[in-house]
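Reviewer comment 2.1 asked that we show a complete input and output for one of the modelled complexes. We chose the 2-phosphoglycolic acid case, as it is the one discussed in the main text.
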Amino acid sequence: MNKKYRRAIIAGNWKMNMTPTEVRDYAAELKPLIPKEKLCDIVLCAPAVTIPAAVRAFRATRVAIGGQNMHYEASGAYTGEISADMLVAAGAKYTIIGHSERRAYYGETDADVNKKLHAALAAGLRPIVCVGETLDQRETGAACSLINYQLSMALYGLDATTVRRVTIAYEPIWAIGTGRAATAEDAEEVCRDIRIFLRSNFGARSARAVSILYGGSMKPANAAELLACPDIDGGLIGGASLKAGEFGQIIAAAQETARMQREEDEAE
Ligand code: PGA
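Response of the prediction step:
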C-alpha cells in the first residue's frame, strides 16, 4: 500500500443547498465531530454566496471551504459567473471542476474543464476534477476509455509537478444521488485505471501523489469499505454531507482507515 504519498480527503458537495444562515447550525453540529488528529483533509464545497459564512463558521478548525464551480476567465462580461480569484478572495481553498451536473445541465465541455483547471491552479486553488460514466456507457463496457478521454482532455497542458496539486474525483453518474453506490470492487477498478493513466502520462511519482476520490451515494454505511480500497483516497459526498452527523461519521471512517493504513505502512 503506498497511500502514504498522498492525502486522504473527505469533501462535501452541498450543491444548491445551505444558506449562509443555515451554515451556523451545521458548523455547530459538525465541529465536535472533527477529530484532532489530522489523518484526512476535510473540505466543504459551498454555494458561492455561502462561502464567506462557511469560512467564518469553520475558522480555527481544519475544515477548508471550496467552491463548486468557477469561470475560466479572470474577469469581464460574464453575467452570473464567478472567477477563481473571487473564490480565493471569499476564502475558498478548493474548487470542484467539471461535476457531471455542470456537464449535463449547463453544457460544460471537456475543453471548458481544462481551461477552468488551468485558471484554478493559476489562482492557487486546489481543484477537484470530476470524471465519470453514464449507466449506458458502463453497460456497454465504455467506462474506462471514456474516463481516460475525460482525463486526457481535463489534464491537457499540465506537467508532472503541477498535476500533483490536482485531485481527481471518480463519480459514476448512475450512482450520484440515487442511493446506489458503486461496489467497492467496481469503484476500485476505475480508480486503479485512473492511477495507471496518471502513471503513463505523468510518471510514477506524480501518479502515487495524486489523491483519487470516489463520489456517488457515499454514506456512513459504505464509506469504510470504499475508503479501504488501495486506489481510493477519499470521497466526494453530496447528500450525506448535508447532515453534519452523517458527514462526521464518514470523516471518522476515513480517519480510521488512514490510521490502519499508516500502521500497515509502518510495519512494511
Ligand atoms: P451524492 O452526490 O453523494 O448525493 O450521490 C455526490 C456528488 O454529486 O458529488
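The longest helix spans residues 244-267. We note this here for comparison with the apo prediction described in Section 3.2.
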